[in-house]
Design a protein that fits this description.
Order of helices and strands of chain A: EHEHEHEHEHEEEEHEHHEE
Helix content of chain A: 40-55%
Oligomer: homodimer
Number of domains of chain A: 2
Strand order of the largest sheet of chain A: 2-1-3-4-5
Structural class of chain A: alpha/beta
Number of helices of chain A: 8
CATH class of the largest domain in chain A: Alpha Beta
Chain lengths: 225, 225
DNA sequence: TTAAGATTTAAGATAGATTAAAGGACAAAT
DNA sequence: ATTTGTCCTTTAATCTATCTTAAATCTTAA
């Protein structure tokens, strides 16, 4: 499982550093922005699992940032603020904040609220899946459908298909595929790969003699479309 | 649109009255329970949109009530408590509390947090029973029927079936199932799982040799349909 | 055209899955 | 306190699916 990514938008370097240390030691990947403009840009380019937003930013009110984010960003946003003012808390929550903590905050509590917020994300989210023509690969449920029918793939076949699907359009060398699927010791066992490409094609291709999904790049490897 | 229903579980009459007045004037329908037993019963009979749960109940610890509710209730639960103790807050949030407010709380803030919690609810659906083909699982009464006949399942069998039912269509790895049912120390005891899948199949499958509900994903785990 | 590369098939080996059954822990009933 | 019965754990035998390997056949690129 990958690390959950958290974006901190706060202008105080000490706070950012404190959060960075605590979050990274709890296995989160941390991104940082020191003003509203930068924060919105970063969130847009690379949407994180959760945003920690300070209300007191230099270039724009945090409430405005929150509203702007909420026009398109629907994961968790937790407000951090020195303002312990009822009106601000109410306004932030009504504008779609997931939670509100006043500084100084207790670290364990922040972590618990982050876990709670991320947990909630995961159930709300629509499942991530990939559709390639007649194929539909569901990464969460670990199932593959072709024309709505569930395909019966072995563990190795599924792993191979997953690798292909995550590198759609890219030529993968035999060596690379062998290393990823069978481990670093198997990079010369090209034969394994050929057999498994065979069985996979039998299951996912309409016409085995003219494969549309797994394309052979002779002398190099395979490409998935 | 109907009024959203809120269940208050708190033993202090003054607090209940205060909440009742405030919530009803904000267009919520309010239900009240003065102890854990009554609260759980009311929640089961008539699942509300949100539960306000006091941690200091006379008959049972609020943490236990929370855990019990969370086995089947997946809408919002906001904790109200006089305890402003970091450990309790963390524990409650990790047990699935949506939010945590310490008494005395500010009324407008509570209302904002309630709005926020209810807003988040609307995407995920609560259901107290699940029908899968000839199977009918009732999460509240913890009973399972097949073709209208009540099946006699042991505690472990029921827990396993519950886990499967809540992850319908998804492949669950052996490790994950073992962790969920037998706890974090049992992740290598694949054999337990196999035995229990065997006994479960005997009870829920029409034809044991061609299981329709619990599908084996060899080398990976099981999938429930 | 020819050598290297790719596919296909099938059989043996291995890891994984099912099933039955016995012993132990525990709770309910006597 | 003893018995009874249920459920859980553990072991072992058997069965099955999957992986590996080799060999025959086909395709591609120089």
């Amino acid at each position: 499982m990958n690390k959950a990514e958290i974006l901190i938008i706060d202008d105080e370097p000490q706070i950012r550093k404190l959060l960075e240390i605590n979050l990274e030691s709890n296995n989160y990947k941390v991104w940082q922005a020191e003003n509203a403009k930068e924060g919105i840009l970063m969130a847009a380019n690379h949407p994180p699992e959760l945003i920690l937003l300070d209300l007191g930013l230099p270039d724009k009110s945090g409430h405005e940032v929150l509203k702007e984010l909420r026009t398109w960003y629907n994961k968790s946003i937790i407000i951090l603020s020195v303002i312990n003012n009822e009106k601000d808390i109410v306004q932030a929550l009504d504008n779609g904040a997931t939670d509100y903590l006043t500084k100084p905050f207790r670290n364990a509590e922040l972590l618990a609220r982050i876990r709670s917020a991320i947990r909630r994300n995961q159930t709300d989210n629509t499942e991530s899946k990939k559709v390639c023509g007649d194929l539909e690969i569901d990464f969460v449920s670990r199932t593959v459908k072709r024309n709505q029918e569930i395909l019966k793939l072995t563990a190795t076949e599924y792993n191979l298909l997953l690798l292909f699907a995550k590198n759609e359009g890219r030529v993968l060398t035999h060596q690379y595929i062998l290393k990823e699927i069978w481990g670093i010791g198997a990079q010369l066992e090209t034969q394994y790969l050929r057999v498994f490409v065979g069985t996979l094609r039998k299951k996912i291709e309409q016409n085995q003699n003219q494969p549309l999904h797994i394309i052979t790049e002779s002398g190099v490897g395979y490409r998935f479309e």
